[in-house]
Known about the structure:
mainly alpha
Amino acid sequence: MVILANQNTGFYVGIFLAFVAVVAVVALVAVILTFASRIAGQAQVAADALEHVRETTAVLPEIKQTNQHALAILEGAQTARKALTG
């Protein structure tokens, strides 16, 4: 009987170690999924912020044209002022 107990002990130790390994893997996967969920949330916030930046900077190419018009008006006003003051 003692010999059978020693043979079964190795089996039970192996089963226990396999159980511990599976529990460790499940815990690590849970941690990884938690971090992935947090990253996904932060990525959505960043995407929303980038969309806001895109919307607010879409008019920047038009500023050059606006500046050119403003300079033309200023030059016209200066010419008119010189004509009126003599």
